[in-house]
Amino acid sequence: MTPTYPMPGAVTSPEGRDPRTHGLSANAVDQLRLAADAVRTDTIDAARHALDGVFAEAPAHPEALRLLALVQLRQQRPADAISSLRRALSAWPNDGLLRSDLGNAQAATGDIDAATASWQRATELAPDHAMPWFNLGRQQQLRGDSGTAAASLGRALDVAPDLVPAQILRGDALVHLGHFDEAVRHYRAALAQHPACGDAWRGLANIKTRSLDDADRTRMRALLQLPETADNDRIAIGFALGKADEDAGEYRAALDALQVANELQRRRSPWNEQALRGYVDQVLAATRQLPKPPIGVLRAMLPGAHIIDMRRDPLETAWSCYKQQFYQLPHFACDFADIAAYLHHCERALDVWRHADTQHIHLQRYEALVAEPEPELRRLFVACNIEFAPTCLDYAQSARSVRTASAAQVREPLRADTARAARYGDLLDPLRDELVRWPSRRDNP
């Protein structure tokens, strides 16, 4: 006869006994605890060995199956993890922790809708557990629903105020919603618990309308000197320090900080200029063979679409890319030569497509737009065959979620004084030299 295991809380456990271990002998409980500790420290072989001891006594214990599923997830076996969790749920169908872990396993298979449903159900079953709220909020943020994400992450923090990832993600969501002061409080709360948290420094630096102060710069420099600072944090802190030094007018220091951060980022996964060049060559060769060349994948999918080719001074464009930490690797923005090459190849491709389809691809000069927004926008609306909307001049008043590195600036009126590269003087001559070697087609498109 298969033993049954009451739901946690369904029966009274002896004092000090975890209700999730009900039905196990003292020896099996010890093995289960060893397995849980091993999972936390990512010592998978030890976890599996301890679980074998539990299963020898209780082959279908739900908590042991849950820990087995966590091991299987670590081993990149999400389908097996789902199977283990469903076995556990057959005994404990209303257990919030099992539902939350099921969502994690479903997400690992790419079934995001099922994962979201599991996390939502977990918050209903276990509203006093932080992780279901965190997982749900994280997914809501990923899909662009910043308002709902902020609420869910707030519930996670109500339960677990020390949950640093929830502090960071809620700060990000609030930035996208334009609530910058509240976002700063969350990033600062994360730093109070983990001073070298690169994501918190990144979040503060990306609120470009709120400058980091001298005390922050001192703290970041000290953190970069500590050997225990992790590389991920070191990179993010380096970019944040570069931004803070630039704001303080310390341009040599800013360049030094950014160079160290970019080099560390680039070492992880170097970008390949030759691969991009070959790709662009092949695409353009195929385009020229067509009777009526289209505008790349986008124009093929949306034949009625209008595409705006926005071009800025190449030095300013290149420098703004170098200062921004991008998370998708490999990335061209970590090296002056790579940035210049990427800019060149993108522009030469767009030139071919624009000349082949002048009615749908429109060249717009950034400097002209910020100097005279209304006339430039009116001309652009005419080119796109749409009626001019005066509200586009009041974009800063929009309450929509903004999910870019310029989220704070989008909430500000348009400014013409955004150029920064000239302040560095000859410090950026190596970048200028690369732009000359890969000439921009900006002025001769």
What is shown here, in short?
62% of the residues lie in helices and 2% in strands. With 445 residues, it is mostly helical.
Mean pLDDT: 90
What is the CATH architecture annotation of the domain at 273-437?
A: 3-Layer(aba) Sandwich
Helix content: 55-70%
Structural class: mainly alpha
C-alpha end-to-end distance: 80 Å
Strand order of the largest sheet: 1-2
From the 3D structure, determine the CATH topology of the domain at 273-437: Rossmann fold
Low-pLDDT sequence parts:
none
Q: Classify the beta-strand content into a percent band.
A: under 5%
Secondary structure tally: strands:
2
In CATH, what is the homologous superfamily of the domain at 273-437?
P-loop containing nucleotide triphosphate hydrolases
Per CATH, the class of the domain at 273-437 reads: Alpha Beta
Tell the overall outline.
globular
The largest pleated sheet is described as: 2 strands, parallel
- The Rg value, from CA coordinates, equals 27 Å
Count, helices: 22
Order of helices and strands: HHHHHHHHHHHHHHHHEHHEHHHH
